[in-house]
Amino acid sequence: MSFSSEDFAKALEQHDYSLQRGDVVRGVIHSHDNDGVYVDVGGKAAAFLPVDEASLKRVSKLEDEFPVGEEYEFLIIREQNSEGQVTLSIRQLEIRKLWNRFLEMQESGESLEVRIGGVNKGGVTVDASGLRGFIPRSHLAERDNPEGLLGKIVTVTLLEVDPDRRRLVLSQRQARQAASLSQLEVGQLVEGKVSGIKPFGVFVDFDGVTGLLHINQVSKNYVASLNTLFEAGQEIKAIILDLDEVRRRVALSTKVLENHPGEMLESMETVMAEASERAPKARNLILKGGSEESS
After folding, report:
1. Which residues in 182-196 are b (16+ Cβ under 10 Å) and which e?
2. H-run or E-run covering 99
3. How far apart are the first and last CA of the chain?
């Protein structure tokens, strides 16, 4: 399908649209030049799509990417000049849609792949489907060697998505945790190391995930002090009591491994040594909602 200058002029005479900056319009490709594409959007003059606004991706041949007669959706980025011509962008429309997509992904906890392109003091910069993003050093899986990640494609989740401030903050560490969480199940026996001790419970690192062994889940008997039972770096086995993949929380229990109340306090070594043999009974107890695992 082709348009002559006369056909184009006649078509324009039949329309008198008000074209405003920020409007999304549909238009038909009319012709090309070295700097961009002329588009019929129903205005008094052909609209213009500059080559650097044609796409988030690099466009080598405008004629191949935008054939004459084909219809596309555009964003008006500059209102009519003295000749009645507006300036269009597909690139900025794609950016708008991408921000909206990232907001949806943040809400759902969905992950995406990005390419690491730069390193600075605070972390690394990435190309996220054409948008520039940032992974803080604390959210890198290999935080001690960010330079080694240059050029690599990594999986991340979205920490902060702010289209108004053009701020996109990502986490590789949380993406790995989410992937690890998807492999876990309630009632599963896990083995890890104590990474922190608080008055309310013990944090245990295992398989890229951190779980919480609450003080009420240590033993069926009262626990006066966690610091007398545990120390940082100590190896421990526990049963997964609950999983919250959305909030990325794992609740653990050792009291379901006890053969009698207080065994964890009296002989933790025995409970740990026999954990694998005791695990099936503990799993059945949890899955059946047995009262013994409740606090």
Report:
1. eebeebebbebebee
2. helix 91-108
3. 75
Cβ atoms of residues 114 and 123 within 8 Å: no
Q: What fold does the segment set 185-293 form as a domain?
A: OB fold (Dihydrolipoamide Acetyltransferase, E2P) (2.40.50)
Quick one: tokens of 268? 């933790």
* Overall residue count recorded for the chain in this entry: 295
Token pair for 78: 């500059």
Token match 């949806």: residue?
104
| pLDDT tens figures, 261-295 | 999 999 999 999 999 999 999 999 898 875 444 44
Fold type of domain 109-177: OB fold (Dihydrolipoamide Acetyltransferase, E2P) (2.40.50)
Q: Tell me: the pLDDT tens digits for 186-210?
A: 999 999 999 999 999 999 998 778 8
